[in-house]
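ok here's the first one, seq then struct tokens
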Amino acid sequence: MAVSTGGAALADDAGIRVREVGSFHIGGSPITLSGAEPREAYVAEGQPPARVDPNGDFETGQVYVQYVRLVRPRSRLPLLMWHGGGLTGACFESTPDGRAGWQQRFLASGLDVYLADGFGGGRASWQRYPEISLAEPLFRTKRELWELFRVGPAGSYATDAARRRPYADTRFPVASFEALVRQTVPRFRTYDRSTQAGYDALVVKVGPSVILTHSAAGPLGFAATIAAPDHVRAHVAIEPSGAPDPSTVDLDRLRRIPHLIIWGDHLDADDSWGDLYASTRRFHDALRKAGGRSTWIDLPTMGHRGNSHMIMMDANSHQVAHLIDSWLKKNAR
């Protein structure tokens, strides 16, 4: 399927008329903790510690969703946006340097938008550790974010911002790197199953819709599509962290569901990116061979060089949003 990058990029604000803004939590299940030792806990500055009993009944595993519904959406298919690991739905709201994010751009294009915070991130809460969570949360350093998100090559980060050496052609707004760091959250690697259940429930609740995923949410999006092919009308995967082994999937269930897979630049920076790229390519090729509809885009081959892993934040994010929107108009039904 051909995808054009011509034409004007999506506007920041095309006279957006909003009908409703709201939120809800979905998924999760009750859990009872017992047998944990009471402890002394800090209450407030100047106050003595309080004796706290951690045992009791809790709800756990819920996903948070914020939605914006338009007065007259151009499509009956809302856009569900799912963030990557260590991030929240905020990554789609605004760019680190203050430009309109993809939430606003797709609203301006006429789509209702649902932003999710996966379990353990943002407003989705998390479990007690170590009593319930199976592993401690991971906190990414600035160096890890700089290199993993491909703002600069290995060894190019420095504590002193003036000494950092980003890629010469980077599209990421380097001067606002700290703004990206501030919105990252601890990552709980044992929460994927709960987040998947919440996202699957979201798809059923919303009904026919389009899923847009980034990074670690990519595999969750593929799984949600396989689980509910009558509800998911298209899946846009931005640099997904892998895809299902096609030999384990009934590809006939997916033949009618168009997929768009987009990759940025400098993927040779780390072997892990090459592995994720290859596994996703195997799925794409197998789906097409089975008669499915899948579009693969390497942005550098289309003239967009220097994109980081955070494509929705890069200087050309509006152009990539326009590319996605044009594809959806042609393919999402």
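and now the second one, same deal
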Amino acid sequence: MTANGVAGVLCGRSPDWLPEHSRSLAALMGAGLSPLQAVEVLRRQYPALSQPLEHAMSRLSRGRSLSQSLGEGGFFGRHARILLEAGEFGGRLPEALRLIADRSEQHRRRLARFRARLWLPLLLLLIATLAGLLLNTRFYQLSLGVALADAGMSLGFVFLLTTLLLKLLKLDRSGWLYWGWRLGLGRTGLYRGFFEVGFYGLLSGMLDAGCDYVEALEHCRDLLDDRVYRGRVRIAQQALASGQDPSTALECAGLPLSPALRQLIRSAGAAGRLPQALGHHLRLEQQRLDLYLEAFYEWLPRIYYLLVIGIGLRYLLG
């Protein structure tokens, strides 16, 4: 399992870390508390997190950053840690924590709606399997053991499919980007949209925090744990260091870049307003991608209705 693999969850590998914890931490730090003081108050507010937060406090007291201290404790996935690092660099930790909380809450709501919609197709699947068991024993004259084995295989397949699907749906954005990159989806418009929001969103945040382009790309290299991807980011850094403009450097490096975004980077960069223009463009792109995600989660339970029909037809047709 890679660092961006099945284990990465948007706002935490620890099941106890909830969006409300990130918001509480953001409120405490927004009130002027240091990261160590804020974590100490959070530990007293949430006794269930007392022990892991004590470890985080120990790391903070040894000079580790908040993103390192909470990330090493398993509270945040890769993408959330990178957002937190960007917030640390730009002095915007409360804003980064609130953004992480909002995205985590949105992700949890989608998963909850998906699970709520599963009970009816799974109930129909169970009924279809029981009906098939009856057909096999009464009409096709199969022994009870063979019929039960057949029904068990059908239900076992659905159980494994559901388990795998839920694990995949829990991947954070970096996890999906990683697997999409490895599977060669970089040329597809949908993947490119998600990559742009993830990669160029981080780039925009680092530029807005005062990084130069080379330094900002250094932080963006952490988005995916893939040798080819990191090599391309390094090529872009070298091109920028040699004096090429950002759009040419990114395009020559082979990083996913839509024509609209390429033109925006070229024109806004020449005008000295790249962080603002890029941020506005990516907010609109995020809204478009959210619509796709909502439609995806709306249609996903219908896969199980197809399974019900398939299993039913298999029994009926013998």
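notes on #2: The chain has a mean pLDDT of 85. Residues 93-138 form the longest helix (46 residues).
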